[in-house]
# Entry
Amino acid sequence: MTRSEKTNPRLVRLIGDLKAASRVNGSPIWRDVAKRLEKPRRNYAAVNLSKINRHTESNDTVLVAGKVLASGEIEHSVTVAALSFSNNAMSKIQSAGGKCLAIEKLVEQHPKGSGIKILR
# Structure
């Protein structure tokens, strides 16, 4: 069985950037996220808003190594970084006062990776 490489250029660049950020900043969180994104796409996380609402407090920062889906409600403002968002999930997060970020932006804002919760 042959091993196939990732063909999405954004994803390949993101994995390389996460590994570089882990080396430069000495933060293992970025290496962990890179390892999760190197796995097959069928293993990516698909997290609903109800789960984010259950496991976070107001003004928390959450990282999802996959897609955020709109099932459920979110009752407080959170910053969510993910590979992708459904349109409804993005609008629900923003209407609750939260922010939706790409993982690349989260690495720029929090190079050490402290205070970030990873949901899967």
User: Anything to note?
Assistant: The CA atoms of residues 32 and 61 lie 17 Å apart. The first strand starts at residue 45 and ends at 48.
